[in-house]
């Protein structure tokens, strides 16, 4: 029996869970208020604060030993799917944020810091930087700017495996489109289990609760040179102040649905537009799979919404049957990835 601590830092919370093999023993969602976090200039500056919160929880609940610690991995260099040992090379890339800042950069850093106390190994599983996309999908139209694979890889892989298992099929024999509908949105065509393309939630695809998604590039270039923005401010506007936040001043889809129920026409137009853009991206990914799509999977927090999933379904239902796995399977996916290594079913990869 292996005891595993899983750590999943998100933009406003840190989820932690203790497993004995695959059995969940205890979990907690440590919420960090905007006020608490705003004093940290960069996400990596939150390391001590989040580490101390986790250690406090472990002490309160008398957890004194683990066999390994696993964290959600971040914006590393592009890498293959799998479980990776956190080593010095990875630590330095997580600290710098080689492909940018992301709360999940803290996952490997915190896991290593705690693992060092217990003198055990730390791992990450299927980080945001997993890259399985085809070369043809990397061409953007401007040689200086290749398209990148940044996505909710951990949950996308986990729900794809869950569907295959539920249907009694092998993922390697299926073609799926998984739409992770969270604070950011990843729409991913899986060809025989391989994630062959993705929108990249920070830069392209549909707008989401906090992000703009793809924008008209000419107008964006004009805005960038208007003299009103520096790079950091504009990036924040695109990734944290866009989408539902930009139009309706909330990142909570449930608030938007309340506004719609009260007859707010703007809220309905914007929310319907998000469903429309999600559906368009799913349609695009169906063409990537030459129309051979076994199922469309809707997952992430917004997949709880009947209104939104019905709207999306009204556009894309003709492509394939829709299956909903609302929320995320990330904590168990972290534990399972670690367990495969501890059980020696798989060797941990080196970054
Ligand atoms: N029952 C629900 N109905 C509608 N929307 C919901 C429901 N529950 C959660 N959401 C919405 O889901 C969104 C958050 O999804 P999720 O929790 O997957 O995101 P996250 O973990 O913060 O970010 P990400 O998934 O991008 O890492 C929010 O807009 C939230 O309002
Ligand atoms: C950038 C891709 C993953 C996310 O949206 O969090």
TrEMBL record:
Enzyme class, UniProt record, top EC level: transferase
CDD domains in alphabetical order: ASKHA_NBD_BK
EC number: 2.7.2.7
Superkingdom of the source species: Bacteria
Compartment(s) where it occurs, according to its Swiss-Prot or TrEMBL record: Cytoplasm
Catalytic reaction list: butanoate + ATP = butanoyl phosphate + ADP
A GO CC annotation given for this chain: cytoplasm
Pfam families to which the protein is assigned, alphabetical: Acetate_kinase
HAMAP family: Butyrate_kinase (MF_00542)
Protein's recorded name: Probable butyrate kinase
Origin species: Alkalicella caledoniensis
Gene: buk
């Amino acid at each position: 029996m292996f005891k595993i601590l899983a750590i999943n830092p998100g933009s406003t919370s840190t989820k932690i869970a203790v497993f004995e093999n695959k059995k969940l023993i205890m979990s907690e969602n440590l919420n960090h208020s905007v006020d608490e976090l705003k004093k940290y200039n960069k996400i990596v500056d939150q390391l001590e604060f989040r580490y101390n919160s986790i250690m406090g929880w472990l002490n309160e609940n008398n957890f004194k030993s683990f066999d390994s610690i696993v964290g959600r991995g971040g914006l590393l260099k592009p890498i293959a799917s799998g479980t990776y040992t956190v080593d010095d090379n990875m630590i330095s890339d997580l600290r710098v944020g080689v492909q940018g800042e992301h709360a999940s950069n803290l996952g490997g850093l915190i896991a290593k810091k705690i693992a060092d106390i217990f003198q055990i190994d730390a791992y990450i599983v299927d980080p945001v930087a997993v890259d399985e996309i085809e070369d043809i999908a990397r061409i953007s139209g401007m040689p200086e700017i290749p398209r990148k694979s940044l996505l909710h890889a951990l949950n996308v892989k986990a729900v794809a495996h869950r569907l295959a298992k539920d249907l009694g099929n092998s993922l390697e024999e299926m073609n799926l489109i998984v739409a992770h509908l969270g604070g950011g949105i990843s729409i991913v065509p899986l060809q025989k289990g391989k994630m062959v393309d993705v929108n990249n939630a920070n830069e392209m695809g549909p707008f989401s609760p906090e992000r703009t998604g793809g924008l008209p590039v000419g107008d964006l270039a004009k805005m960038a040179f208007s003299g009103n923005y520096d790079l950091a401010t504009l990036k924040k506007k695109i990734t944290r102040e866009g989408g539902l936040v930009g139009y309706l001043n909330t990142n909570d889809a449930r608030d938007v649905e309340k506004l719609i129920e009260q007859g707010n026409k703007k809220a309905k137009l914007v929310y319907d537009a998000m469903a429309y853009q999600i559906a368009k991206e799913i349609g695009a990914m169906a063409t990537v799979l030459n129309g051979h799509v076994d199922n469309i999977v809707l997952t992430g927090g917004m997949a709880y919404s009947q209104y939104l999933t019905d709207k999306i379904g009204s556009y894309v239902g003709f492509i394939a049957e829709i299956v909903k796995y609302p929320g995320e399977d990330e904590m168990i996916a972290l534990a399972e990835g670690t367990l495969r290594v501890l059980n020696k079913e798989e060797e941990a990869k080196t970054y």
